[in-house]
């Protein structure tokens, strides 16, 4: 039987897959930029290329998840703005 953490992770992954779609164009653009910046190698073995695509997919999911959290966060109230000003 799976532990609670595994169940939560599986549910979160299922949620992300249904709510945040990463298109092939998004993935290809991210990989191209990572290669341009030297994060990923320009040449690689086919299995490395597939692994890099999987890793980049996870990176994009994490970015989209954070963007969703920030978008859904409530606006700071007046007392917060006074503290910052």
Summarize the structure.
The chain is mostly helical. The protein has helices spanning 4-19, 24-36, 46-72, 78-84.
Biggest pleated sheet = none
Gyration radius, rounded: 18 Å
- What's the pLDDT, averaged over the residues? 77
Helix and strand pattern: HHHH
- Poorly predicted parts: none
Counting DSSP H or I runs of 4 or more residues, the number of helices is: 4
Q: How would you classify the helix and strand content by structural class?
A: mainly alpha
Q: How much beta, percentage-wise?
A: under 5%
The total of beta strands comes to 0
Helix content, binned percent? over 70%
* C-alpha end-to-end distance: 52 Å
Shape: extended
Structural write-up:
With 85 residues, this protein is mainly α. It has a domain at 16-45. It is built from 4 helices and no strands. It has helices spanning 4-19, 24-36, 46-72, 78-84. Helix 2 (24-36) crosses helix 3 (46-72). The radius of gyration is 18 Å and the shape is extended. The N and C termini lie far apart (52 Å). The mean pLDDT is 77.
